[in-house]
Task: inverse folding
């Protein structure tokens, strides 16, 4: 039942918000809706294992063999939890921001939440596709109406990009459906569909392109920096903190167990793309002056690492990915909050125009530094736990052993690919330390200039939001066990289904 | 049979009403009442209440397929009348005659949906086409309208000629016009039959404006008065598709393997030309003309697949496409400026109209939660189930992605651009209500397509 409420509350909240006349009422109302969602989700998390609280199933289109079925298994639970927690944070941290037609803005924000929840919960392929697209429509309006100067073409590019990906996925879904024994879109039937190795090989790309565009993975990333830069900050938080997780989540739930042979065939190729993405995005991040673009590229690098660990296809690595999805969501939202505060106060995001803020706003500076360190994944922060596990997974992976044909063209015989990938990804981490610390240095330290001389520290509510996030960062950094417990079972289950060696033995 | 006779009688009645009734609103009300009567009579027919029992000697066959489509077509026409009947006044002085012609077209639609003899198909196509030539040219003082009418007439007659030729060849092969005995199962068709089949295929492709027989479409749709374009692009096109489907699924099913490739190529071409050309249009009316070509490409997938899913899907598609297109045109008619810029700032001045128009456009683009998505989904599913032609399916979805570009340009203009979006006439409250119901129907079909498809079986 809770699974339905997770979608229903934001959906109804969003619709009601459209009809509220006053902007302030709509803002309070949407916060209320988000908080209620969060409380119910937290209650669901505490529920004992094996209850039906977190799943739901009802007839929808029996003629097509599709049901309205939702379930929060381990991984879905982490992401619904992230979405439920992130929304109140986002709304509170952008509280001061005024929007024209605020009721519509908050309406669209809540509708996005409903779509995201649906994507994370759906266990029926057609339903999943429904929500996958639906999450996009409100974001399209959010960015196009309330975004920056170049918002219309940029958002359009984003929309077309993701739409092409989804349509290819739709063909993939229909194809797999036609191969299921009981002609059903249910996740379980999909897992048991009889697909030959050759079919899996091309189906892999039909699905993966959709997910790779969403994540985004090099070379499908070109929409991302522009969109992050042009969107209103609250939407950017949703996009980068939650929406990119749709792609990674979808790989775990809808790709690895569904097409194990396809994954096995392409794992090395995708890993190469991921590594290229990590290095490439980090290098570009070094050159950025706009803080939003810097974080956007840094995010591409982080997602690349997650994708690399995903296709390492072992338990440790995937545990790391699940943990890191949660942590990356929290950290990047915190970074956006800081950027938003700086931009609100000084009217610019350009690092070259800022400087010496630490003298004027010590609290902001302290919190910013902690968040930035978490972004670099320093020990004792949450980022470290995830990255450590992921590197461990990549290093020990057996997915790369043997001879490979890369993209069907280049032959490759490398026994030590795991080590090479680890080193290259490690360079990405070092680069991330370089650009993050440089950003801190430029923005917080040095001499104040005309613009920053009149700076003041952040307000109490802003301090609280950041303090809560910093607390989460440190608590997870020191004691990640509860999170690991949640994801452990699901990861093991996914890997059993995706384990190709196991399949052959059967 | 009920609907056929009543609509013929209504056609005659409307001709008389032009001098019997003085006020235009009286004419309009008679037409609306007649339309409603036809719809009800057809539904009664579906459930066994035959008002007339005239033996057709095997020339026509009123089965579920035809009666169900008739209901969809009549319901769409009824909605079309509710939305746009008032706008027909602007076209010219022969107000009642326009209704009369439309009722005659409906007669033709019934024939095309329920023929069993090729002669009835020919008759139906002609009864549809001739009033359409007149309606296209009804804006007498407009040069574009005249040109469109003449062009339509010349090309239309040509295609009818080809059709007749095909029918003749098929008669030579089988010695009968009856589509159920044209080609016997397991028989190796003579070259006469193959030639006849191809001619019928091309003639029907012309009627549904599939490429490369689509050249008349943009000019005719653009030149005709917008109210009639709306009717032509939706209900008439849907009827042509149903006739196409009926002909090929009954008469030529056993040769499916042999003409499937031809249809696949026509489908791909139609999708490509319709979508790519629509991208470059400046006028929304012309864009909708090309969009109707590209949507025809998607409907061709049903003919390509020719299985159970395809039949269901085609019904859903024609309903979804007709409802959405009628809605978009109804809004477009109210605008002063038919270019994309004409819609700038529309959302600020007419928030409700902009919202429903967005629903229609999203449906045309095939976004989930609207009928358009499930319609496209059915088509893709049918094509995948038909097997073998995966390139066509992938090509179709890529073209669907292109179509997003031009549909969303309208949404962009309405919501994100500044302007005053001048409307040429006032927008009445009932008009808004009908549009609201239409948008609701589209979303309903997008969530529960069974609300419609259920009636096909029960």
Result:
């Amino acid at each position: 039942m809770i699974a339905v409420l997770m979608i229903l509350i934001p959906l109804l909240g969003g619709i009601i918000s459209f009809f509220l006349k006053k902007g302030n009422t709509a803002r309070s109302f949407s916060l209320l809706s988000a908080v209620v969602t969060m409380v119910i989700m937290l209650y669901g998390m505490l529920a004992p294992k094996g209850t039906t609280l977190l799943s739901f199933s009802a007839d929808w289109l029996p003629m097509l063999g599709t049901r309205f079925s939702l379930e929060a298994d381990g991984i879905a639970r982490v992401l619904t939890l992230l979405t439920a927690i992130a929304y109140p944070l986002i709304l509170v941290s952008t509280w001061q921001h005024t929007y024209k037609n605020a009721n519509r803005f908050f309406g669209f924000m809540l509708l996005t939440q409903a779509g995201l929840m649906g994507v994370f919960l759906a266990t029926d392929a057609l339903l999943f596709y429904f929500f996958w697209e639906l999450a996009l429509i409100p974001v399209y309006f959010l960015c196009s109406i309330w975004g920056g100067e170049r918002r219309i073409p940029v958002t359009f590019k984003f929309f077309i990009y993701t739409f092409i990906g989804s349509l290819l996925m739709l063909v993939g879904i229909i194809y797999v459906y036609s191969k299921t024994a009981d002609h059903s879109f249910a996740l379980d039937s999909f897992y048991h569909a009889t697909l030959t190795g050759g079919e899996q090989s091309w189906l892999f790309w039909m699905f993966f392109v959709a997910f790779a565009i969403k994540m985004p993975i090099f070379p499908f990333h070109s929409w991302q920096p522009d969109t992050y830069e042009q969107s209103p900050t609250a939407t950017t938080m949703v996009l980068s903190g939650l929406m990119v997780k749709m792609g990674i989540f979808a790989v775990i739930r809808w790709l690895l167990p569904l097409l194990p042979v396809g994954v096995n065939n392409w794992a090395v190729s995708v890993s190469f793309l991921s590594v290229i993405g990590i290095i490439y995005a980090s290098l570009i991040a070094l050159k950025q002056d706009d803080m939003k673009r810097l974080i956007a590229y840094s995010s591409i690098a982080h997602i690349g690492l997650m994708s690399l660990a995903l296709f390492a296809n072992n338990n440790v690595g995937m545990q790391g990915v699940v943990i890191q999805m949660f942590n990356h969501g929290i950290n990047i939202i915190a970074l956006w909050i800081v950027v938003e505060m700086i931009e609100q106060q000084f009217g610019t995001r350009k690092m070259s125009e800022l400087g010496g803020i630490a003298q004027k706003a010590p609290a902001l500076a302290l919190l910013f530094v902690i968040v930035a360190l978490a972004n670099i994944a320093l020990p004792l922060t949450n980022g470290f736990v995830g990255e450590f596990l992921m590197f461990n997974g990549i290093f020990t992976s057996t997915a790369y052993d043997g001879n490979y044909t890369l993209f069907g063209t280049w032959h490759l015989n490398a026994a030590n690919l795991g080590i090479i990938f680890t080193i290259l990804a490690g360079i990405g981490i070092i680069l991330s330390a370089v650009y993050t610390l440089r950003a801190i240095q430029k923005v917080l330290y040095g001499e104040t200039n005309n613009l920053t001389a009149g700076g003041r520290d952040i307000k109490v509510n802003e301090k609280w939001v950041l303090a809560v996030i910093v607390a989460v960062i440190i608590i997870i950094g020191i004691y990640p066990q509860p999170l690991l417990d949640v994801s452990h079972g699901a990861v093991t289950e996914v890997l059993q289904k995706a384990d190709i060696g196991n399949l052959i033995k059967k | 049979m009920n609907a056929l006779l009543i609509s013929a009688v209504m056609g005659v009645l409307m001709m008389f009403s032009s001098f019997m009734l003085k006020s235009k609103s009286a004419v309009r009300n008679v037409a609306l009442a007649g339309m409603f009567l036809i719809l009800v009579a057809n539904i009664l027919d579906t459930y066994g209440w035959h008002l007339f029992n005239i033996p057709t000697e095997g020339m026509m066959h009123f089965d579920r397929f035809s009666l169900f489509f008739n209901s969809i077509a009549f319901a769409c026409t009824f909605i079309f009348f509710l939305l746009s009947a008032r706008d027909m006044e602007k076209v010219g002085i022969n107000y009642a005659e326009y209704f009369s012609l439309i009722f005659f077209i409906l007669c033709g639609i019934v024939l095309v949906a329920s023929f069993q003899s090729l002669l009835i198909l020919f008759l139906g196509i002609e009864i549809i086409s001739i009033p359409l030539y007149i309606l296209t040219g009804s804006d007498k003082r407009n040069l574009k309208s005249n040109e469109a009418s003449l062009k339509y007439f010349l090309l239309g007659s040509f295609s009818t000629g080809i059709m007749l030729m095909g029918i003749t060849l098929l008669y030579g092969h089988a010695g009968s016009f009856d589509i159920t005995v044209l080609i016997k199962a397991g028989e190796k068709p003579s070259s006469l039959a193959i030639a006849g089949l191809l001619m019928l295929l091309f003639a029907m492709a012309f009627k549904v404006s599939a490429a490369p027989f689509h050249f008349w479409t943009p000019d005719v749709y653009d030149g005709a008065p917008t109210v009639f374009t709306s009717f032509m692009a939706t209900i008439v096109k849907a009827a042509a598709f149903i006739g196409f489907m009926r002909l090929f699924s009954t008469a030529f099913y056993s040769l499916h393997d042999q003409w499937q490739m031809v249809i696949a190529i026509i489908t791909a071409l139609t999708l490509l030309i319709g979508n790519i050309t629509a991208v470059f249009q400046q006028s929304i009316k012309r864009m909708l003309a090309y969009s109707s070509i590209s949507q025809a490409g998607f409907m061709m997938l049903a003919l390509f697949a020719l299985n159970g899913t395809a039949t269901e899907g085609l019904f859903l598609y024609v309903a979804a496409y007709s409802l959405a297109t009628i809605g978009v045109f109804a809004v477009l008619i109210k605008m002063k400026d038919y270019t994309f810029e004409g819609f700038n700032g529309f959302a600020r001045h007419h928030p409700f109209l902009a919202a429903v128009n967005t629903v229609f456009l999203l449906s045309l683009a095939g976004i989930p939660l609207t009928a358009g998505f499930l319609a496209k989904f059915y088509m893709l599913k049918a094509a995948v189930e038909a097997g073998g032609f995966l390139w066509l399916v992938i090509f179709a979805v890529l073209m669907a992605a292109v179509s997003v570009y031009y549909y969303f340009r309208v949404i962009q203009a309405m919501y994100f651009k500044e302007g005053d979006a001048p409307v040429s006439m006032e927008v009445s409250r009932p008009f808004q209500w009908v549009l609201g119901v239409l948008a609701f129907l589209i979303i309903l079909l997008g969530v529960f397509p069974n609300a419609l498809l259920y009636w096909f079986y029960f």
About this structure: Residues 315-346 of chain A form the longest helix (32 residues). Chain A has two domains: 1-258, 266-506. Chain A touches chain B through 27 residues (CB under 8 Å). Strands of chain A lie at 55-61, 66-71, 403-406, 410-413.
